[in-house]
Amino acid sequence: MASEQSTTKKFGKGERVVPHPSAKASKFYPPEDIAQPKQNRKVQRPYKPRKSLKPGAVLILLAGRFRGKRVVLLKVLDQGVLLVTGPFKINGVPLRRVNSKYVIATSTTIDLSGVDQKVVDKVGSKEYFARDKKDKKTGEDAFFKQGEKPEKKQIDSSRVEDQKAVDKALIANIKKVPFLVSYLGSNFSLRKGDRPHEMVF
Q1: What is the pLDDT of residues 116-139, one digit of tens each?
Q2: pLDDT by residue (tens digit) across 177-198?
Q3: What is the pTM of this model?
Q4: Are 114 and 172 in contact (CB under 8 A)?
Q5: What is the Cα–Cα distance from 109 to 6, expressed in whole angstroms?
Q6: Which residue in 38, 76, 121, 135 has the most C-beta neighbors within 10 A?
Q7: 86 CB contacts (<8 Å, ≥6 apart)?
């Protein structure tokens, strides 16, 4: 330990303390920086739906394949996801999930009495919309089938039955209100001169 102590050297009239080589800074450094954990300042808060997003409300979709369509809200799911339907027979929108950020809630509401709540809960589960795992084909068959058109996806018969079960009671309630069928069947769009900020939905 005594040999690792710093030494004092005299240079002319002054003195300088020379540290031991083991105490000096290394001339070499690692090629990769030492990873330091990042501080996560975000706090995950529970989702609170807007007051206008209540089951039975008519929504206007702003994004996706069915943008501009008017749909009926069936259930508010977790993390800002909404379960909606067209109904399919009126405007071609099936049972699907949409992000609450990309919808406009209107003042029009539809009575959901008669709709089977068990079917709605079943459709609203995460497993219902889970994607099927595809088997990756390898070898000569996969190589020669690269140029062929992909097979058309077959819709599961259980999903068709769920769609019919929900839409049957919903369409019966919609037909009781005059002009509501044509309202849901029409698309929302903006024309020249329209002012969205002044519109009342």
Answers
A1: 888 888 888 888 887 766 656 655
A2: 999 999 999 998 888 888 888 8
A3: 0.68
A4: yes
A5: 85
A6: 76
A7: 69, 71, 72, 92, 93, 94, 167, 184
